[in-house]
Write a structure and sequence with these properties.
The chain is of the alpha/beta class. The chain is built from 15 helices and 8 strands. Helix 14 links the parallel strand 7 and strand 8. The structure holds iron/sulfur cluster.
């Protein structure tokens, strides 16, 4: 072929190539539009900047009162209210004094400007959002603030509250020992007595031993109910979101109200069709849309290792006669927890035992960014768990109002991996010996 006709052919096909290319671009952008989930799909709706804690519009099966309703209600009855930061604290001592504890975990999406004046940007969101929320919304409605020494970040926050800010409200600290020897138990008994005495000027009374024991028994009863709820959840496959909304209501509901909801609410829970079974570890599943996404992906949380939930089930069947040693033994009996200085090996055995018991194929670690106690354990712990055949996924969050698209994508991939492993585990169990 001569060079000139070849050039003419090229010129004549150029418009066709151009149209084809344009068409394929349009197709791929349309495909992307269809495939990428709408950013609101898992989050109900965008956060309201003016009022980030406003209830989302997703239809809830469980019609629970909010923390705010409870604070107002309790105060109207003439009782005192304590704002309590995570994680471990002697709820029984507050109850015996007639003080109602309402826990602060965030809330997700709350602006952090007030805290940013006092803390470094690499302080976790539990402290930054919680501190801001406390000052902007909570302080004028509560009678005291309790800050357990769970980590350096919370200890720093307690110092700022006591020494650098004008709160007008008493701030009590609570120190939990960092090990579980006999000496630690003796330290804890003294610490409980100190905390109990510090409550007297606030409540204006010294509760009887019988009142303390009654509060201990009530909480032990709640722990028993929680265990039963978990058993039923694993058998029935309740929606993770609805189940955890009930579990987390314990952070602010009076025990009697919680027991009433625990008795009636589960019969209304939606059920999911699980494709995979997982354990959920970390501090708090916020935003709760995480659990909604797990529902949609068919991942059933069969046990948790969360600071806001099962790490605070201090079950103790051996209730000794004196209230303070009894309470100390209960607190010492909780499961392994990185904020209590428990060795990684103990956490590993605990998680593997849970995974084996419930045939879980993987563990999701949902952690606040910059949470030192959690993150120190993660490299070695995940390696040990993977060697044991468990899929692991570590996600770090700053208690935002919604899940990021990147998190959604990673959770989708994790769900496929776990579904395969769970299927394998089920087949393995069904194979006759
Ligand atoms: S998230 Fe971690 S660092 Fe932050 S308060 Fe909780 S334990 Fe401490």
């Amino acid at each position: 072929m001569e060079p000139q006709p070849r050039f003419a052919i090229l010129i004549s096909v150029l418009p066709i190539i151009f149209h084809l290319f344009r068409g394929s671009r349009n197709c791929s952008s349309l495909k992307m539009h269809l495939e990428i989930p709408d950013e609101n799909r898992y989050i109900g709706r965008k956060p309201d900047i003016q009022n980030p804690t406003k209830k989302q519009e997703r239809k809830e099966v469980l019609d629970l009162p909010g923390r705010w309703d409870i604070v107002k209600n309790v105060r109207q009855k003439g009782k005192k209210v304590a704002a309590v930061f995570p994680i471990h604290y002697p709820r029984e001592l507050l109850q015996a004094h007639g003080i109602h504890p309402v826990e602060i975990f965030g809330p997700p999406g709350w602006p952090t400007q007030t805290a940013d004046r006092h803390f470094q940007s690499y302080t976790c969101a539990i402290v930054r959002r919680g501190f801001s929320f406390l000052h902007e919304k909570v302080l004028s409605h509560v009678d005291l603030v309790v800050v357990p020494h769970s980590c350096d970040a919370l200890q720093g926050m307690a110092s700022v509250l006591m020494d650098f800010t004008e709160n007008g409200k008493p701030v009590l600290t609570f120190y939990l020992p960092r090990s579980r020897r006999k000496e630690d138990e003796a330290f804890l008994v003294n610490e409980l007595r100190r905390f109990f005495q510090a409550l007297t000027p606030i409540s204006g009374r010294i509760p009887e031993e019988a009142e303390l024991k009654k509060a201990i028994r009530l909480n032990q009863h709640v722990f028993g109910i929680l265990e039963k709820l978990w058993e039923e959840h694993v058998l029935t496959g309740w929606s993770n979101l609805e189940f955890f909304r009930l579990l987390r209501a314990r952070e602010y509901l009076p025990a009697e109200d919680f027991l009433r909801y625990a008795d009636t609410a589960p019969s209304h829970f939606r059920r999911i069709r699980p494709k995979g079974r997982i354990l959920l570890s970390g501090i708090v599943p916020e935003p709760m849309d995480l659990l909604h996404l797990l529902d949609e992906l068919g991942l059933l949380v069969v046990a948790d290792d969360l600071a806001c939930s099962s790490r605070r089930v201090y079950r103790n069947s051996d209730l000794v006669s004196d209230a303070f040693p009894c309470l100390a033994q209960c607190l010492m009996a909780g499961p392994p927890d990185p904020t209590r200085g428990d060795p990684i090996k103990q956490r590993f055995f605990h998680l593997v035992k849970l995974a084996q018991k419930h045939r879980a194929g993987g563990i999701l670690f949902f952690l606040p960014k910059f949470c030192e106690p959690e993150l120190f354990d993660i490299p070695l712990l995940t390696k040990m768990l993977q060697d044991e055949g468990l899929a692991t996924l570590v996600l770090e969050s700053e208690l935002e109002s919604s899940l990021s698209q990147q998190m959604v994508t990673r959770l989708e991939a994790f769900a496929e991996l776990v579904a395969d492993r769970t299927e394998h585990l089920l087949k393995f169990k069904e194979t006759p010996a």
